[in-house]
Amino acid sequence: MTFAVVDEIANKSSLNNSSSFLQIPGENNNKTLGSELVFSNVTNITNNPKDSVYAQIAANDNNDVYVVWQESVTEKPDEKNYDIFFTKSEDNGTTFSKPINLSNNLQNSNNQEISAFNENVYVVWQDIDQNNNKNSSIIFKRSIDSGNTFNDAAIQLANNTNNAYPKVNSYQDYVYIVWNSENNSLSKDIENSGLFFIKSSDKGNTFENSIRIVHNNFGESQISVSKDEVLIGWGGLHAKNIKDIYFVKSDDNGTSFTDPYTIQVTKPENKNYSDKINHPTNVEIAHDDPSNIVWQDVISKENQDIFIANIKNDFPSTKIVNLSNNTGISECPQIAVSNNHIYIVWEDITPGNHEILFIKGTVQQNN
Predict the structure, then answer these.
(1) Residue 63 CB contacts under 8 Å (≥ 6 apart), including other chains
(2) Residue 61's domain spans which residues?
(3) How many CB atoms sit inside 10 A of residue 269's CB?
(4) Is 302 among the domain residues?
(5) Residue 31: other Cβ atoms inside 10 A
(6) More exposed terminus of the chain, fewer Cβ within 10 Å: N or C?
(7) Are residues 151 and 28 in the same domain?
(8) Does the residue 228 lie in any domain?
(9) What is the pLDDT of residues 129-156, one digit of tens each?
C-alpha cells in the first residue's frame, strides 16, 4: 500500500519521488482548497462570554453531527470551573440544537471525548476534585436516541486517577474506553498507575472490570476500532519524554491484547523521511481505521513537525514522513480516513500566527 498526498494549503512538503511512501499525485493536481471542498460560513455554536474550549466532534451517516466541549460556568473571571456541554445537528450541521450540560456538577470537568455509532452517542470525560487537582475520576454518559436525551445517570468508571486523558470509541454494541493514571511512585505494583482499558458489550449499559494494559512508558493514548480489531497507540506528554510510539492490539473485541509494539523505522531514502522518533506527543489514529498514525515530534527547541506512518501488518519496519516539514512549531494533528482518502489537519505557527493547515492523501493499493 502506498499513498499519494496533496498539500491543499501551501505545498509545504516536497514529496515528489515516485517511489515515495507518500507522494504527490500525477499531473493536473489542484492546490486550492476551494476547488475540491466547499465550506459553509463559520458558525459560533457557543456564542457567549464564557470560556469554551477543546471541542470534539462526531458524525453519523444519518446526517447527525454531535459536538461536545468544556465551558467555564463560574462567574468569577479569575477562576475556571468547567462543565461538559453537548449539542447536535440533524441536518448535516446546518442548524444546532440548544446546548445541554452533561456534567453539571461542582467539580472541574474536562478532557472530554465523544463517539457515535448508529443511534448511540457516548461521551467520556474526567472530573477533577477542586481541593485536589491531581485526583480525578473517569465519567461516562450515553444517549441511546441519537443525542436527543441523556437520561441515564453518569457512570464513574474509575477514581484516584491523574493525567487521565480518557478516550472513547465504539462499534456495533461495543464501547471501548482507555485512560492514563500516573502515580508518583515508580513501583509498577501501584494499582492505580498505568494505562487502563475498559469495555462494554451492551452499548454502555454495563461495563466489565477494567484491565491494566501497561505499567509504565505510557502517555496520552488514542483508540481505533475496525470491526473486532481494537488498536491503542500512545506517545508521550510534553512533561514526559517518551522516545517511541507504542501500540497494543486486540483481535477479539478488546478481550485480550498483545504486548506493546513500537514502530520500527526504515533508514530514509531522501530528506523527506526521518529515521527516528524523538519525543512523540499528540499521537492520533483515525477512529475507524488503525492503518495510519500521525503525531507531533521534536526536531529542535524551535522546530516541531507533524509526521505520519503506516502501522498495518503488525508494525513492520516502515518509513515515516514529515508532513509539515518547516522551521516553526507544528502541533496538535488530527486524522480522519474515509474511503480511499486520508485527511490531516494541524495547528501551525510558521505562517507568522497560529493557523490551521490541511493536507489530503489518497490511498493507492499496490498491485
Answers:
(1) 89, 90, 91, 92
(2) 48-216
(3) 12
(4) yes
(5) 11
(6) C
(7) no
(8) no
(9) 777 666 789 999 999 999 999 988 899 9
Same domain, 54 and 112: yes
The verdict on 38 and 53 lying in the same domain is no
Residue type present at position 211: I
Instruction: Please tell me whether residues 305 and 193 are part of one structural domain.
Output: no
| pTM summary value | 0.81
Same domain, 37 and 53: no
**100-129 pLDDT per residue, tens:** 999 998 889 989 999 999 999 999 999 987
Instruction: Please give the tally of structural domains in the chain.
Output: 2
* CATH number, position 175: 2.120.10.10
| Claim to verify: residue 13 and residue 114 sit in the same structural domain | no
Are residues 25 and 54 located together in one domain of the fold?
A: no
Quick one: 90 and 208 in the same domain? yes
pLDDT for 40:
66
